[in-house]
């Protein structure tokens, strides 16, 4: 038996495998070792034993063994192969029979153990059920049979508070002191808590007044809650009782817990960018608060590769390294507190990234992968919110094999629905998937890629079972081991459609049993319903998974499908055909929502509500869109479908009107737009105002009190319409209304009071939404007539124009002046919102009731108070102002001063926040009203203008403006005498305007020689007038001089066809347009006029020249890379009759080349000499005219050409080379072309080489060289050739040393020896002709001259044989000459005669052909006749 170690499974899976049957086939089940207490219905099942542990006789001979066709096939297979397998199976059975006894013994042991365990579990289960039953009978809500009782102790004593609690289940008990949970860890030395058998005791050692208070015990359980109270009074030795009414005992000194400080607002981030949200806390986090949790749409976020959560000091932050549309939603930060959980939430909007193509759609989102198989997955996604320039037509699906890193498109045709089956994947491979939307503009940006998906067989784990045996061993049993020797697989079962779309069908089936122990593949066949003509649907595709998508079905037709299994042993029979399957109907897009309603929320947000459509089953969510009234620019609100029907749209502009619309989202696409909402103006919703504050007593007469208070910090979006007051006497609990009708002012006289009594007051503010919360109760004011000599306190402190470094403080004079009138005020400042340290702002009292405080620190918080002064002294200070932070708010505007279009001086102020009830309040010096006779105000939208009627010194001063419902929006301007003078001048200019000049007089000359004088002003109206003055007389248009006036462009033009001397002078343009006027003068004389006239004549002549063929490029020369001089010109405006001729010094040059198609003509000079200098002329002509171009190639121009040619020659120079000769070394440099104008110098070791006996220089048209005669070792070194072209020096180098020198010297010696040998070698110099003729019978004498040292040996040959017959031949030999005489020649003497000379240095042969002819014959024509 094969035993394999497998991974340990969970206890539940192990128990399930031990108590349930394992699927063997569709009909047979076997059960693991059954205990005796299990149900009788399992008696027909048998223990699982691998097939290789059972003998063949047992398997096939057991009659009562439950049968399945698998065993019949196995039996048939064995019978067919009986002869082949008989010996093998017999041996195998004999060996296995030896093991059977041990296996059966182990079965009995295991059965006993299982029985014992089952009995134990059954007993424990019954005992547990009985205990639960008893608990249910005894359940009881919490109760205190003995409650806490009050105690009074002396300071320093020990006290024990005790109570008993009952309840089932036992309740959880908590202690509280003065309503705050009691934390024993704060004072472990002082508190001791005991809980035993329902008795709960709290022992307090060494009681102090701080321990006095109300103690509470709370008992909680699922059945309810019970509470008991008791008061602890601690008597002090000083006589006061802690915990009594006259002694306020502080609560338990708990550590100050942190709260949210500044938090993140609604945030926008572009797709793909990083996002960071941060919130700060009011103090350091306590230990139990350290874990700040972050959530998105209620789901907690954790640290990951894309999410970074940090907690530094008192700041918590979360960062998304790459934000995608899937990350859009409500983000929440949760903080633990003593009372529970405090949280802050804000919506994060993820905007679409830039389109991949212009007009392309946005990216889809939420791509999900399901039904993962060996070669198949199923994808779903959500459509994008933005279609682009045209509706989305479909989607492309892409996959990426992570091993290759390349994205590949899965579908050829676009998929309209937001789901798609991906087939043909590789098993055991990691893939990622993404989707692109497509419209007419092209494919948009891809979606966020899915997480890596591993393709695998999802049923693999079901084919393996692990059985535990004794001593911790396990037996792994697979289905394949139970299939015996089955090779060919069985057919699949349950063929059906698991996904049906209007474009495809996905088939699914169950794998066959048995499978055949080998890897399975499948063939898919199909046939039209009612026909039995089956065709292969999978074609050449390999189907590895029990899933197969079919795309090529015909709509309206029904098909049946069947599947065959395949392994390496063969193909199974086909499965049972499926039920008829056809393409589904196209899924319709959902209906749009309706009843869209926009509701005011804040000054930057709007609440939207809508009704979902009736058919809402397939709706995934909703997309929202908004547009500002007056624009046609619809923008997307959310890019992730929102599932609810209520949404707050953030990021809107205050005071702007918007309309909204909504789409439904489904897998079939987005619906059409809903109807637009009604336009809504963005502003805060109206709430009741907040509570007033700072109630102050301003005056008391003994029976009346005058009270003042501070306005609410928030008016609720509507102006406060009035105030209501309540009063009560001190120590009374009942409040009584003071006024029934609302009070408009923040000051009220309360009458009918009793002298000598203390009174408290509270104030309510009311607006159109209702009455707000009351203020905190004032301090107890004594009703007693004021008689003190000092003044009372100022009141109604207000703050205006708060900026980074300054603010303005306002206040009202005290109602009670004291013994004498108020003479001034002293101001004090305190830094921090709760500081008691006050610093004087002014040393001397000021008389105004306003003061500008400067020198503040930006971001710091300040409080202010004011005291009045009279002759008796300084009165009591006012209540402190509200804490204010020195900071300029975004959008803060200041008063602007200027002059309007009518010339009136004005002051203007623009508010960035306004409501319908908002009003601009203008004043002078903060208190004086504006005199309507001297200035008037006008308000348009959010801007107010104060316009002066006739400003004078009487109007100078400080002007202020503020909003009626928001004093934080305020500004001031000090109108000074300098401003008045400056603006009066500007006002005069506006009322008496000048026409502005854009461009002064300009003079242009056209290509035809026309002259244009022009100027341009600002745009003029149709009523504008023009007068042109030339030399003090008005002119108008004439045929020779035209005048144009374009009023819309402000353009004045004077056009001259042909400028002449008569046009010299000054030109003045006088313009008038309504009240505006101006004039501009051009002085067109002297040098400026003469230059313009000459330029016009030249251009006119040039234009006339171009009426026929003309030179577009005149004659010019250049030097090419081959050191050739090229003279070139180009003509244009030519035709077939046009001719081009070249001349030099009046003589026509025929070597020029002319390309009529391009108009280019060239003359190439390959070698430049003196004769090339001269005057060149080219003439082009036809019937229309003639044009001439000349080139003077003389003097300086010729020198310049030589210099350029020399430079090009130098640039063409190759590297220095060495050549050995018989005389020595020859160093040379090759050129494409060399001229003597290029000066050359040779240097050896940086020293110039002068002409001497051992060196010779030379040159020709291709080379420059220097010869070194008889070289020695002293000639080793660096040689340099310098070439000077007249402007630059060019150099070439050769290092003649080392092996280069050695090789050259060796070659020189060889050539020298060869020259000596050649000089002394034996040779025939002259004397013998090639052919001679002689008549028969005559004598022939041949003579030749000889050289050689030493004197050479001489031999004469006849027909290559040496002549030795001295009778017929006479041979003479001299040092420098030799001859042979042939006596009485005959025909036999004809042939070749040769002389051969030789010495120690070499030899040479000279030949002559002798032709003998008879008397009367003619000698050969090519022969020299002798004799």
From TrEMBL:
<feature type="compositionally biased region" description="Low complexity">
    <location>
        <begin position="14"/>
        <end position="27"/>
    </location>
</feature>
<keyword id="KW-0514">Muscle protein</keyword>
<dbReference type="InterPro" id="IPR003598">
    <property type="entry name" value="Ig_sub2"/>
</dbReference>
<feature type="domain" description="Ig-like">
    <location>
        <begin position="250"/>
        <end position="332"/>
    </location>
</feature>
<dbReference type="InterPro" id="IPR007110">
    <property type="entry name" value="Ig-like_dom"/>
</dbReference>
<protein>
    <submittedName>
        <fullName>Myomesin-3</fullName>
    </submittedName>
</protein>
<keyword id="KW-0677">Repeat</keyword>
<feature type="domain" description="Fibronectin type-III">
    <location>
        <begin position="363"/>
        <end position="458"/>
    </location>
</feature>
<dbReference type="GO" id="GO:0003007">
    <property type="term" value="P:heart morphogenesis"/>
</dbReference>
<dbReference type="InterPro" id="IPR003599">
    <property type="entry name" value="Ig_sub"/>
</dbReference>
<feature type="region of interest" description="Disordered">
    <location>
        <begin position="1"/>
        <end position="30"/>
    </location>
</feature>
<keyword id="KW-0393">Immunoglobulin domain</keyword>
<dbReference type="Pfam" id="PF00041">
    <property type="entry name" value="fn3"/>
</dbReference>
<dbReference type="InterPro" id="IPR050964">
    <property type="entry name" value="Striated_Muscle_Regulatory"/>
</dbReference>
<feature type="compositionally biased region" description="Basic and acidic residues">
    <location>
        <begin position="1"/>
        <end position="12"/>
    </location>
</feature>
<dbReference type="InterPro" id="IPR036116">
    <property type="entry name" value="FN3_sf"/>
</dbReference>
<dbReference type="InterPro" id="IPR013783">
    <property type="entry name" value="Ig-like_fold"/>
</dbReference>
<dbReference type="GO" id="GO:0005198">
    <property type="term" value="F:structural molecule activity"/>
</dbReference>
<dbReference type="Pfam" id="PF07679">
    <property type="entry name" value="I-set"/>
</dbReference>
<feature type="domain" description="Ig-like">
    <location>
        <begin position="1322"/>
        <end position="1411"/>
    </location>
</feature>
<feature type="domain" description="Fibronectin type-III">
    <location>
        <begin position="491"/>
        <end position="586"/>
    </location>
</feature>
<feature type="domain" description="Ig-like">
    <location>
        <begin position="142"/>
        <end position="235"/>
    </location>
</feature>
<dbReference type="InterPro" id="IPR036179">
    <property type="entry name" value="Ig-like_dom_sf"/>
</dbReference>
<feature type="domain" description="Ig-like">
    <location>
        <begin position="1109"/>
        <end position="1189"/>
    </location>
</feature>
<feature type="domain" description="Fibronectin type-III">
    <location>
        <begin position="793"/>
        <end position="891"/>
    </location>
</feature>
<feature type="domain" description="Fibronectin type-III">
    <location>
        <begin position="691"/>
        <end position="785"/>
    </location>
</feature>
<feature type="domain" description="Fibronectin type-III">
    <location>
        <begin position="592"/>
        <end position="685"/>
    </location>
</feature>
<dbReference type="InterPro" id="IPR003961">
    <property type="entry name" value="FN3_dom"/>
</dbReference>
<dbReference type="GO" id="GO:0055013">
    <property type="term" value="P:cardiac muscle cell development"/>
</dbReference>
<dbReference type="InterPro" id="IPR013098">
    <property type="entry name" value="Ig_I-set"/>
</dbReference>
<dbReference type="Pfam" id="PF13927">
    <property type="entry name" value="Ig_3"/>
</dbReference>
């Amino acid at each position: 038996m094969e035993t394999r170690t497998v991974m340990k499974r969970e206890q539940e899976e192990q128990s399930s495998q031990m108590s349930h049957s394992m699927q063997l086939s569709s009909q047979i089940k076997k059960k693991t070792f059954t205990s005796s207490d299990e149900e009788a219905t399992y008696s027909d099942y048998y223990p699982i034993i691998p097939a290789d542990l059972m003998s063949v006789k047992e398997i096939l001979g057991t009659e009562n063994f439950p049968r399945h066709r698998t065993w019949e096939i196995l039996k048939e297979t064995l019978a067919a192969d009986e002869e082949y397998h008989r010996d093998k199976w017999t041996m195998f059975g004999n060996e296995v029979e030896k093991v059977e006894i041990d296996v059966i013994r182990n079965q009995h042991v295991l059965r006993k153990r299982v029985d014992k365990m089952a009995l134990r579990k059954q007993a424990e289960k019954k005992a547990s059920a009985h205990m639960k039953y008893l608990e249910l009978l005894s359940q009881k809500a919490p109760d205190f049979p003995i409650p806490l009782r009050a105690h009074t102790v002396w300071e320093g004593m020990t006290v024990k508070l005790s109570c008993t609690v009952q309840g089932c289940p036992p309740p959880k008990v908590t202690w509280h002191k003065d309503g705050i949970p009691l934390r024993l860890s704060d004072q472990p030395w002082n508190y001791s808590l005991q809980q035993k058998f329902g008795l709960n005791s709290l022992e307090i050692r060494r009681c102090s007044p701080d321990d006095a208070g109300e103690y509470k015990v709370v008992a909680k359980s699922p059945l309810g809650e019970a509470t008991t109270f008791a008061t602890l009074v601690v008597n002090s030795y000083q006589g006061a009782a802690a915990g009594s009414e006259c002694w306020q005992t502080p609560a338990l000194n708990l550590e100050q817990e942190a709260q949210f400080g500044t938090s993140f607002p609604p945030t926008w981030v572009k797709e793909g960018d990083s996002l960071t949200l941060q919130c700060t806390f009011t103090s350091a986090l306590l230990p139990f608060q350290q874990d700040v949790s972050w959530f998105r749409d209620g789901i907690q976020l954790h640290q990951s590769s894309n999410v970074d959560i940090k907690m530094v000091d008192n700041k918590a932050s979360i960062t998304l390294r790459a934000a995608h549309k899937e990350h859009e939603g409500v983000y929440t930060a949760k903080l633990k507190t003593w009372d529970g959980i405090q949280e802050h939430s804000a919506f994060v909007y993820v905007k679409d990234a830039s389109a991949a193509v212009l007009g392309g759609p946005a990216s889809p989102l939420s791509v999900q992968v399901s039904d993962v198989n060996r070669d198949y997955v199923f994808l779903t996604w959500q459509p994008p919110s933005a279609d682009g320039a045209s509706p989305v037509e479909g989607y492309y699906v892409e996959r990426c094999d992570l091993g290759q890193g390349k994205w590949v498109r899965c579908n050829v045709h676009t998929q309209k629905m937001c789901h798609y089956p991906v087939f043909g994947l590789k098993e055991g491979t990691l893939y990622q998937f993404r989707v692109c939307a497509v419209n007419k503009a092209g494919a948009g940006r891809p979606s966020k890629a899915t997480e890596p998906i591993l393709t695998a067989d999802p049923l693999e784990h079901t084919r393996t079972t692990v059985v535990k045996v004794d001593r911790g061993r396990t037996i792994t049993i697979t289905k394949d081991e139970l299939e015996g020797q089955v090779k060919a697989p069985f057919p699949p079962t349950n063929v059906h459609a698991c996904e049906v779309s209007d474009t495809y069908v996905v088939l699914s089936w169950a794998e066959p049993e048995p499978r055949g122990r080998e890897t399975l593949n499948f063939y898919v066949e199909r046939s039209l319903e009612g026909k039995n003509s089956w065709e292969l649907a999978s074609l050449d595709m390999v189907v590895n998974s029990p899933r197969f998508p079919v795309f090529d079905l015909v709509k309206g037709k029904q098909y049946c499908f069947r599947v065959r299994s395949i392994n390496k042993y063969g193909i199974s029979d086909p499965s049972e055909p499926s039920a008829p399957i056809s393409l589904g109907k196209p899924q319709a897009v959902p209906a749009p929502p309706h009843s869209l309603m926009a509701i005011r929320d804040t000054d930057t947000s709007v609440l939207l509500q809508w009704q979902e459509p009736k058919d809402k089953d397939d709706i995934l969510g909703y997309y929202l869109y908004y547009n500002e009234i007056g624009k046609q620019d619809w923008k997307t609100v959310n890019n992730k479908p929102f599932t609810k029907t209520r949404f707050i749209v953030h990021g809107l502009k205050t005071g702007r009107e918007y309309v909204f619309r909504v789409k439904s989202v489904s897998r079939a696409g987005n619906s059409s737009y809903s109807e637009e909402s009604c336009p809504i103006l963005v502003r805060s919703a109206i709430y009741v105002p907040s509570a007033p504050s700072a109630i102050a007593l301003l005056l008391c007469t003994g029976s009346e009190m005058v009270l003042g208070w501070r306005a609410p910090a928030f008016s609720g979006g509507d102006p406060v319409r009035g105030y209501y007051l309540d009063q009560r006497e001190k120590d009374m609990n009942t409040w009584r209304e003071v006024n029934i009708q609302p009070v408009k002012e923040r000051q009220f006289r309360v009458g009918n009071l009793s002298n000598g009594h203390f009174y408290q007051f509270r104030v309510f503010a009311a607006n159109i939404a209702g009455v707000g919360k009351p203020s905190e109760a004032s301090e107890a004011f004594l009703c007693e007539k004021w008689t003190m000599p000092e003044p009372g306190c100022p009141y109604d402190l207000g703050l205006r124009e708060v900026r980074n470094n300054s603010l303005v403080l306002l206040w009202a004079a005290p109602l009670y002046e004291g013994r004498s009138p108020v003479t001034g005020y002293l101001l004090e400042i305190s830094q921090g919102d709760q500081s008691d340290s006050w610093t004087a702002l002014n040393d001397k009292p000021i008389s105004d009731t306003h003061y500008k405080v400067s020198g503040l620190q930006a971001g710091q918080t300040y409080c202010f108070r004011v005291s009045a002064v009279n002759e008796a002294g300084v009165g009591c200070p006012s209540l402190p102002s509200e804490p204010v932070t020195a900071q300029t708010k975004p959008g803060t505007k200041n008063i602007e001063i200027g002059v309007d279009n009518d010339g009136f001086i004005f002051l203007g102020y623009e508010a960035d926040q306004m409501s319908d009830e908002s009003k601009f309040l203008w004043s002078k010096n903060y208190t004086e009203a504006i005199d309507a006779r001297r200035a008037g105000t006008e308000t348009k939208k959010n801007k107010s203008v104060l316009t002066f009627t006739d400003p004078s010194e009487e109007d100078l001063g400080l002007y202020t403006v503020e909003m009626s419902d928001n004093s934080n929006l305020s500004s001031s301007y000090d109108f000074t005498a300098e401003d008045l003078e400056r603006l009066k001048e500007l006002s005069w200019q506006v009322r008496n305007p000048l026409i502005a000049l854009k461009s002064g007089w300009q003079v242009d000359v056209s290509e035809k020689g026309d002259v244009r004088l022009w100027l341009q002003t600002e745009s003029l109206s149709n009523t504008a007038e023009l007068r042109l003055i030339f030399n003090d007389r008005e002119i108008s248009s004439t045929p020779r001089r035209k005048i144009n006036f374009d009023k819309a462009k402000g353009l004045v033009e004077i056009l001259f066809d042909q400028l002449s001397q008569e046009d010299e002078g000054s030109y003045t343009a006088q313009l008038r347009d309504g009240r505006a006027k101006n004039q501009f003068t051009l002085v067109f004389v002297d040098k400026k006029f003469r230059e313009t006239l000459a330029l016009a004549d030249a251009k006119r002549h040039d234009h006339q020249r171009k009426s026929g063929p003309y030179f577009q490029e005149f004659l010019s020369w250049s030097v090419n890379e081959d050191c050739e001089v090229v003279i070139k010109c180009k003509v244009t405006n030519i035709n077939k009759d046009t001719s081009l001729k070249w001349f030099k010094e009046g003589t026509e040059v025929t070597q020029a080349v002319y390309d009529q198609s391009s108009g280019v003509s060239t003359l190439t000079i390959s070698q430049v000499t003196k004769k090339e200098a001269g005057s060149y002329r080219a003439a082009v002509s036809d019937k229309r005219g003639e044009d001439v171009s000349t080139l003077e190639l003389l003097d300086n121009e010729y020198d310049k050409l030589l210099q350029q040619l020399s430079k090009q020659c130098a640039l063409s120079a190759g590297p220095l080379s060495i050549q050995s000769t018989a005389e020595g070394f020859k160093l040379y440099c090759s050129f494409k072309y060399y001229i003597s104008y290029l000066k050359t110098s040779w240097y050896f070791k940086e020293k110039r080489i002068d002409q001497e006996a051992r060196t010779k220089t030379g040159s020709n048209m291709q080379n420059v060289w220097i010869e070194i005669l008889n070289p020695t070792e002293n000639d080793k070194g660096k040689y340099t050739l310098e070439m000077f072209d007249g402007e630059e020096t060019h150099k070439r180098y050769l290092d003649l040393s080392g092996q280069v020198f050695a090789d050259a010297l060796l070659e020189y010696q060889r050539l020298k020896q060869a020259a000596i040998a050649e000089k002394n070698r034996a040779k025939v110099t002259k004397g013998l002709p090639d052919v001679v003729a002689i008549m028969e019978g005559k004598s022939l004498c041949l003579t030749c001259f000889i050289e050689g040292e030493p004197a050479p040996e001489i031999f004469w040959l006849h027909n290559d044989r040496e002549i030795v017959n001295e009778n017929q031949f006479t041979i003479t030999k001299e040092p420098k000459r030799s001859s042979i005489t042939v006596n009485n020649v005959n025909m036999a003497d004809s042939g070749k005669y040769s002389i051969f000379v030789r010495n120690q240095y070499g030899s040479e042969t000279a030949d002559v052909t002798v032709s003998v002819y008879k008397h009367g014959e003619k000698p050969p024509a090519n022969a020299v006749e002798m004799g």
